[in-house]
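User: I've been trying to design a sequence by hand for this structure and keep getting stuck. Would you show me what you'd pick, starting by listing the structure so we're on the same page?

Assistant: Good idea, let's start from the same input. This is the structure you sent:
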């Protein structure tokens, strides 16, 4: 049962200081009445490790937030595991590299917390799902008693916003995430599937969702944007409510997972409907110049004209959507985009100077923007349709 009346806690935090953040999370847990939630439980911490990035990039869970959370959990349980399936392959080698590169391995070692290297997963039925009734989910998540979801507040090229709900997509193993993009190429179906996944987890596990907006990401998130200080930490047991508040701070609405959440009764229609336990109001944290992704099309912040493509179906819709293009001056031919494209529509070709570079075959592209998300060199740019550009979208 997902209770739309669950309160969220919101506090001002201006720096990554472990003592300060620990005190804030501790106070939030108390304010939310969640004391005892973790006692003697197997707690799985689900960070956001979308790709190997340093914490300053604001793309991944900050190690200091993890450290603060671990200190609190260690007082309550000895069974803590950090588990995530990042954007690439789900292998021990990838996990090792991402844990280390994102700065989480050091924290885990310091506190003797287990980093997951079990790369198995299991099929799980999702009877309540509207769009997907079956998910492949990584084993440690399925074996958890409680999930602590350490999400980042970011803009997102496909979904407009990424926070607590979207972070659960990292419970799907490796390339299966690309298959989900291929299975649900339609934006609305994809958002509905993400809602199904989150619903499945919430119906089977208690969750504590902590959204880090101390240093958020604006622009071409979830990996290629720029850090933006919002100075806040938001938490709650209902990730939809956490996100309704989080997305309201950056003036983004129309986020498909949240719209779907509203339709299913998981959250109120707006942040005003959420009980926020805070010394300040969400308006005190809100900014009105948060940079939108270049794909801005389905969510507010783009004009009505920018959202025009969604009013058409099929091929016209696909043709009007912003499309990815390779910046050949930046592309180093690493092949990451080719490996992550769910439609296998990226080829590595050798240019006139004998240099290997990525090439996108437009006809097959479903505009999922995985290539932009996972390019380590920000070599995938987004190009708007000239007609949409001409009419001011
Ligand atoms: S576009 Fe990016 S990910 Fe793709 S080959 Fe070039 S550098 Fe690598
Ligand atoms: S080319 Fe990029 S946007 Fe198009 S289907 Fe492949 S990964 Fe998705």
């Amino acid at each position: 049962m997902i209770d739309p009346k669950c309160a969220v806690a919101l506090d001002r935090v201006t720096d990554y200081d472990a003592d300060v953040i620990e005190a804030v999370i501790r106070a939030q847990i108390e304010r939310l009445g969640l004391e005892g939630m973790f006692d003697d439980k197997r707690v799985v911490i689900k960070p956001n490790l979308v790709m190997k990035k340093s914490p300053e990039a604001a793309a991944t869970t900050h190690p200091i937030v993890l450290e603060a959370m671990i200190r609190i959990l260690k007082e309550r349980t000895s069974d803590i595991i950090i588990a995530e399936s990042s954007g690439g392959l789900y292998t021990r080698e990838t996990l090792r590299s991402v844990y280390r590169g994102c700065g989480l391995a050091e924290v885990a070692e310091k506190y003797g917390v287990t980093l997951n290297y079990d790369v198995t997963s299991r099929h799980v039925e999702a009877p309540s799902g509207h769009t997907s009734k079956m998910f492949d989910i990584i084993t440690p998540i399925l074996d958890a008693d409680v999930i602590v979801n350490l999400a980042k507040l970011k803009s997102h090229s496909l979904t407009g916003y990424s926070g607590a709900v979207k972070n659960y997509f990292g419970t799907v193993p490796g390339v299966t995430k690309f298959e989900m993009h291929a299975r649900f190429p339609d934006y609305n179906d994809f958002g509905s599937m993400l809602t199904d996944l989150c619903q499945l987890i919430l119906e089977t596990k208690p969750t504590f969702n902590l959204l880090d907006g101390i240093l958020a990401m604006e622009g071409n998130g979830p990996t290629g944007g720029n850090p933006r200080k919002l100075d806040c930490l938001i938490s709650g047991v209902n990730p939809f409510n956490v996100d309704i508040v989080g997305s309201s701070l950056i003036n983004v609405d129309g986020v498909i997972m949240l719209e779907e959440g509203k339709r299913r009764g998981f959250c109120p229609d707006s942040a005003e409907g959420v009980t926020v336990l805070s010394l300040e109001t969400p308006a005190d944290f809100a900014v009105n110049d948060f940079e939108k992704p270049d794909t801005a099309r389905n969510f507010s912040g783009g004009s009505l004209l920018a959202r025009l493509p969604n009013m058409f179906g099929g091929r016209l819709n696909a043709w009007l959507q912003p499309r990815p293009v390779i910046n050949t001056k930046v592309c180093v031919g690493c092949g990451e985009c080719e490996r992550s494209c769910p439609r296998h529509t990226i080829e590595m070709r050798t240019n006139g100077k004998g240099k290997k570079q990525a090439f996108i075959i437009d006809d097959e592209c479903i505009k999922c923007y995985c290539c932009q998300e996972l390019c380590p060199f920000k070599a995938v740019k987004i190009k708007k349709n000239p007609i949409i550009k001409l009419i001011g979208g």
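That's my pick for every position. To get oriented when you compare it with your attempt: The mean pLDDT is 93. The radius of gyration is 20 Å.
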